[in-house]
Amino acid sequence: MTSLVVAPHSELAPYTLGNEAVPEHLLSKCKPHLDALENAVLAADSELELLQKRIQQLILAKDNIKRQQQAYTTLFSPFRITPNEIIACIIQSTLSDPYLLDRTDRIMLRKMMSVCRRWRDVASQSPQLWRGLDLTLPNDFHGKDDQVVTTLLSSWFARGGKGAPLRLRVRDTNRNLFAMLGRSFDISRSVVPFILSSPHWGELELLECNAPVILAIVANPSPIEVKCLSLSLTPNWNDSGDMGGIKFTEETLPRLESLSLGNIIPPTGGISLEHTVLVSLHIHKFEGQLQSLISTLSEERLPRLEELVLERLEEISDSDGCRSTLAHSAVKRLVVIGANTVALLNHCMFPNLELLRLCNIKYSKGSSRKTTVEAFVRRLPNSFHSLSLEDSKLDAPMLGPLVVLASAVRNVHVRSPAFLNHIGKASDNTLRNLEAVYCHESNYSSEGLFKHLSAWFSRRKSLRGPASKRITIYMHGFGGDFPVSRSGGHISTLREAGVDLQNCNTESVAEWKLAYKIRAHHHRLETDGGLETGLSHRWMDHVWSSDEDLNEDTDPYQSDDYHDRYRYGSPYGYSTSYSDMYYSD
Fold first, then answer.
1. CB atoms within 10 A of CB 532
2. What's the burial of 508, exposed, middle or buried (CB within 10 Å: 0-12/13-18/19+)?
3. What three-state secondary structure class fits 202?
4. Rg (Cα) of the chain, in Å, rounded?
5. 247-280 residue pLDDT tens
């Protein structure tokens, strides 16, 4: 073995410390010494290589020991005894809607099932995760025939439990010529066999599909067990004749309670809407004669209709000078969306109305819309209790007089309390039943507002005497020292007048909106387009996945292909987590 130590050459060493010339007889001795040093370097390198290999072996051995140590340490983890119910809740919390899984949720569910065998088993045995699907066509079933689609859907919903109410939303984003013409190239037809073969639908939505697809579902001779049904035609579909002969009756849809129609023209398209069980109806983008619409919504045709949502009725024609009135004693909840929809209120009378929600109806002083809305509110019955104006787009000077006209109102929902500066002169009969004002957005307050409120309610108290019920105004950020610093001492005056100021937060607003109990919020129609990506999906472990195409760091709603189009849910923004209450028999 070559020595790793080479002693300095006694004769040559002094010359390494300076620049003197080396004698010839000494230079001949330098070559052997250099060779000895080179051999020592090579020997050192060889030794180091062996040591490095040994070090790597020790590092690997250490890592393996640490992994074993960590693995055995987990045996003491309290999470091992965590109930399956908590794991199921954790899995559900990762999903945007555990009751209706879209593409992103299905990918997330697959990842949760990959944590370990126990998590996979818990997810597989959580039936609520397998009872709802939100599909976008043709992306989700690109290149698959009807039989394959039926098999995939059956495999998914089988985990939801036999006889359980199912939820399915199908949105057709195909805009090619053949789909617009309703020919066989339309992939949305692929889900029709499965829909018809399923015994019980809790909620079924066919959005932006063409007429033949909707016709195949609704005109099926065998009854379909569905409680909530949403149908919308492809935007700009003009061949309404293809929809002729469709009947929405209890014979074809015996359990139907909630119906939503978008881009569909009931009277002029030959559709018969006559149902004795229907409770909720949402009509979106109606085009036709006013008389036909009034006839369609009559109490004779829909005797149990409690909730009516009228949205964007842009083309109501009154060329015949219709003088008919839509008088419906069963309607308790009315939602009006869109400025042009307001015109229909001139022909409506609901003697038992309890809730009125106005969205996107902005008007100016002196406009005909203002006259129509105020006249309708003035006619509200004594049974009326809730006025929802937080999404009306009306400014404070318009809101104040409108609220005062609803003399029977008990609950008023607005964005801010600024409208209270415009409620006019107090009298003993003004807002006689008022119990609560809910301000849905961040606090607007000033000493002037508190001064006005204290004077207004004090005057009303002096005119009518002490009230049996106190009034509560819910405002954001109203807590701590805030009232003292901003109210100018008027808080105590308000309390003496029977008015309490209550702090609220975002969670409170969500609870208020749930209290509306408007069933139509489930439909969330998206009739003006939707997310159109080029992703194809594959079936893996019974969960659709497109990991190879999905950039997890990218918001799917911020892609270049997505545009902020109008959505049905935008005036509401409510969760659907409470929807199961409508599925109980």
1. 15
2. middle
3. strand
4. 36
5. 788 888 888 999 998 877 554 445 678 899 999 9
Do residues 285 and 312 lie in contact, with contact meaning Cβ atoms separated by under 8 Å? yes
Pairwise CA distance, residues 453 & 416, whole Å: 14
For residues 218 and 221, what is the distance between their CA atoms, to the nearest angstrom? Answer: 9
Query: Which two tokens mark 448?
Result: 């002037």
- Asked whether the predicted pLDDT for residue 487 surpasses 60, the reply is no
Name residues whose C-beta falls within 8 Å of residue 312's C-beta, 6 or more positions apart in sequence: 284, 285, 337, 338, 340, 341
CA pseudo-torsion sign 382, 383, 386, 391:
negative
Residue 123, pLDDT score: 94
Helix axes 103-113 and 84-93, enclosed angle (nearest 10)? 140
Q: Residue written as tokens 């105020």?
A: 374
Cα(536)–Cα(544) distance, rounded to whole angstroms?
10
Length of the chain in residues, anyone? 585
User: Which CA distances in Å does 3 have to 6, 29, 131?
Assistant: 7, 20, 78
Domain chopping of the chain, boundaries:
13-76, 385-530
Tell which residue, 351, 349, 359, 345, has the closest CA to residue 290. 345
Task: Give the position of tokens 């849910």.
Answer: 569
Q: Decide: residue 557, CB within 10 A, 0-12 exposed, 13-18 middle, 19+ buried.
A: exposed
CA-CA-CA-CA dihedral for 83, 89, 94, 95, to nearest 10: 140
Q: Looking at the DSSP assignment, which residues form a beta bridge with residue 414?
A: 439
Please give the backbone phi and psi of residue 109, each rounded to the nearest 5 degrees, phi first: -60, -40
DSSP string, 345-409: GGGEE-TT--EEEEES----TT-HHHHHHHHHHHT--TT--EEE-TTS---HHHHHHHHHH-TT-
126: number of Cβ within 10 Å? 21
Q: Does the pLDDT at position 190 exceed 80?
A: no
The one-letter amino acid at 299: E
Q: How far apart are the first and last CA of the chain?
A: 92
